[in-house]
Design a protein that fits this description.
The protein is α/β, with parallel strands linked by helices and about 525 residues long. It is built from 14 helices and 21 strands. The longest helix is centred in the middle third of the chain and has 22 residues. The two termini are about 30 Å apart.
Length: about 525
């Protein structure tokens, strides 16, 4: 049993959402919903089959077709309900959504294998069509957008006009199109992604100007709504929450603890994946959230399960199994029949639980417990929303701004070798030193997330008069607002030199590397 905002829930008393987002398989689909909430507009995200059923009894003011990891030229590609084409409702197709509209209405879409367009791309705009509404307020002749596609619209359907094209050539395809008569727009990029310049303007133009949606989302009601829905599911039962001390689990605990009282138990499972001194910090954070944290320390089962595999996804899957078993044992010991998790929308998106590609399994998404109901109250929220909710609840600033740390922790920051107690101990020490130096320089506070990993590919070096052959420490910082996309952080040269000198004093470290790639194409973590 799962509840969360951003989806239609049984018994929901609020008015039907004004915007229907048809999820065709993109990992960015929930970012569209997040953007609309920024404008104060609620939306429903539904796959094609459910969207078709919902449209029989609901008439939204706008429809948005998401992107997809599929191709419209596949034998059986994802397809929105045909009824939307004659519904006389404004439609915006994004990436794959635009390609589907183009091909379905008589245009041409070709696949360019190996020649796709991924990442930051410059597009040129046609000013003659600014009065179509979608591009209102964009005064430049060009935009830098985030693209992620291998297919290209080469010929428009009858009645459509091209309003943007790629930087390479005016004949290299279509980056945006419009048919005012059909009330249809399409963009071959992702306005919902932070890296797209003026993406929020484009979406707000469509939702507020073109579709005429009214503001019906009040962030101040967020806490009451989540609490009410969660209490409805839990009823008079006891609940247990996985408490990591991060902003997600802490905010959820602080939200529910006053209502559940002694029926809520916060539990931290320390399987050896935590950083130095972290368990003490978690205990103090639990007090701020209004609960007493009970932690289970059992590193042997986790290390044993991960000691003979190098594969990142296999590590995550094995961690999930041991984590689930430990969690279920604790729940039974406390008489709990409900498991509450602070999982966010990105966790569900990247694990493929929302219909897109499985980028990486998450330890608390898709678990199967024996006799325990699962509740993910934050599954429709993003990190920035949870931070705001924590502030609303009065949590200390250092909790609300705390950087994320993956559930498997240091286990997935040992890259290219099995997990051992010795490697964990080395990484724990190195992580402490890197964090301390970056905090002292003020750069840690500028990052959204810091990753310190042990790359177990040995490099040759010289120590004294002898040869050394030891692994590399990888340091990566990311700056992001939604943790779906982000910009690699460039550490200052002076700080890098200090980090390198400090880490190489450890005889078990052979080299130090700095990784500054954006997300995508890279992920935040190395595994």
């Amino acid at each position: 049993m799962v509840i969360g905002l951003g989806e239609l829930q049984k018994g929901q008393t609020m008015k039907a959402p004004q915007v229907l987002i048809i999820n065709l398989g993109s990992q960015y689909t929930d970012l569209i919903d997040r953007s609309l909430r920024d404008f104060g507009v609620r939306s429903a995200i539904l796959p094609p089959a459910r969207a078709n059923d919902w449209l029989r009894s609901n008439t939204p003011k706008a429809i948005i077709l998401s992107g997809s990891d599929a191709s419209v030229n596949d034998p059986d590609p994802p397809a929105p309900p045909e009824v939307i084409l004659t519904a006389d409702i404004p439609i915006l197709g994004i990436c794959y959504g635009m390609q589907w509209l183009a091909k379905r209405l008589g245009g041409q879409v070709i696949s360019r294998t190996g020649k796709g367009n991924y990442g930051r791309t410059e597009i040129h705009l046609t000013h003659d069509y600014f009065d179509q509404g979608l591009l209102d307020g964009l005064l430049a002749n060009w935009l830098v957008v985030h693209a992620s596609h291998g297919d290209v619209v080469t010929h428009l359907p009858p009645g459509f006009t091209r309003i943007a094209w790629p930087e390479t050539s005016t004949t290299a395809g279509v980056m945006a199109m419009v048919s005012s008569e059909r009330k249809m727009w399409g963009v071959q990029f992702h306005p919902e992604v932070h890296e797209t310049q003026h993406g929020s303007t484009i979406l707000s133009n469509f939702v507020l100007r073109i579709a005429g949606c009214e503001k019906d989302w009040n962030p101040r009601n967020l806490a009451d709504e989540i609490r009410e829905e969660t209490l409805h599911v839990i009823g008079d039962r006891n609940a247990i929450i996985g408490f990591s001390g991060g902003v997600d689990s802490t905010t959820l605990t602080a939200l529910m603890a006053p209502s559940l009282g002694n029926r809520l138990r916060a539990v931290t499972i320390d399987g050896g994946q935590l950083r130095e001194g972290e368990i003490l910090q978690i205990i103090e954070t639990a007090k701020s959230a209004g609960v007493f944290d009970r932690h289970s320390m059992a590193s042997a089962p986790f290390v044993r399960a991960l000691s003979d595999t190098l594969d990142a996804e296999e590590k995550r899957k094995r961690f999930r199994v041991v984590y689930r078993d430990a969690f279920q044992t604790l729940a039974r010991g406390y008489g709990a029949s409900v498991v509450m998790q602070g999982s966010l929308a990105p966790d569900f998106i990247e694990s493929g639980a929302t219909g897109g590609a499985n980028i990486a399994s998450h330890h608390n998404v898709g678990l199967t417990f024996d006799g325990l109901d699962q509740v993910h109250p934050f599954r429709g929220l993003f990190k920035y929303e949870v931070r705001a909710l924590g502030q609303e609840l009065g949590l200390p600033a250092d909790i609300c701004t705390r950087q994320p740390f993956p559930g498997p922790g240091l286990f997935v920051r040992i890259v290219g070798a099995p997990v051992t107690e010795e490697r964990l101990a080395l990484l724990r020490l190195v992580d402490r030193d890197v964090t301390y130096i970056l905090q002292a320089s003020g750069e840690y506070q500028q990052m959204s997330q810091l990753v310190v990993a042990l790359l177990c590919v040995n490099t040759a070096g010289v120590r004294g008069d002898g040869r050394s052959y030891k692994p590399t420490i990888a340091i990566r910082g990311l700056v992001t607002s939604d943790f779906m996309t982000g910009r690699g952080f460039q550490i200052k040269e002076e700080t890098r030199r200090k980090l390198t000198r400090t880490l190489l004093r450890n005889p078990e470290v052979g080299n130090v590397g700095y990784f500054e790639a954006d997300k995508p194409p890279c992920r935040t973590e190395f595994e």
